[in-house]
Amino acid sequence: MKKYKGIIFDMDGLLFDTEMTYYHANQVVADRLGISYDFEVYRQYIGISDEEMIAAYHKNYDQQYGKEVVDRLVNESHEQIFADFSQGKVALKPGVEALMARLNELHIPKVIASSNTLKFIHILLAHSSIKDEFDSIVSAEDVHFAKPNPEIFLKALAKLGLKKEEVLIFEDSKNGILAANQAGIDVVMIPDLILPTEDLKAKTVGVYQSLNDVVEKF
C-alpha cells in the first residue's frame, strides 16, 4: 500500500458494529406494530442516509399501514437505537484500536465521514475508547446529498487540507465505495454485512476481512 498522509473513515459497520443494532431495533418495533419486516428488507437500506430510509419506509408502507404507523416505526426505532447507544451496547469492530494506534505512531490525521447524525456519532464515540482519536467529523447535517454522492468525502478531504492522492478512505458499503470513486480518492473496503461483487472490488485498492489486516500495511 502506498504512503498516505490522511485517512477518512466511514463509521457505521466499519468503526462500530452498529448495523445489527439498527436492524434489531427496527425489527422489534415493526413486530410490535404488525409491520411485515425482516433482514432482507433492512439490508436494502444499508449505506444510505436516514432521510432516504425514512422516505423509503413511507413509500413502501404508508398505503398498507398508514402514515401514522410508519411515523411510529421511525420514531420508536430511533428511540430504541439511542437507548442502546447511550448504554454503550455497541462494540468496536475488530482492528479499530490497533489501526488507531498505528496511525498515531505515524502522526497521520483522521476524519470521520458518516451518513449518521452528529448526535448519534457523538454518543457512539463518547462510550468508546476512540472518542478522542479524530481530528474532525463530517456528518449527515454537513451535506446536501448522501452517498453515493461524493460530497461528504470532498468535505472530509477539505478538513484534512490534503490532495486527493494523499488520502485513503475506509468503507464497508457499496454506496461508500461508489462515493469514494466519484470523489477520486483511493478506498479500501472492509465488508460488514454485504460482501462486494467483483465489479465493486475493482473500484477499491483492496478488500480486507477486518481492519486488523491493514495495520501492517502502514
Automatic annotation (TrEMBL):
Pfam families: HAD_2. Gene3D superfamilies: HAD superfamily/HAD-like, Putative phosphatase, domain 2. It comes from the Bacteria. This is HAD superfamily hydrolase. It comes from Enterococcus cecorum DSM 20682 = ATCC 43198.
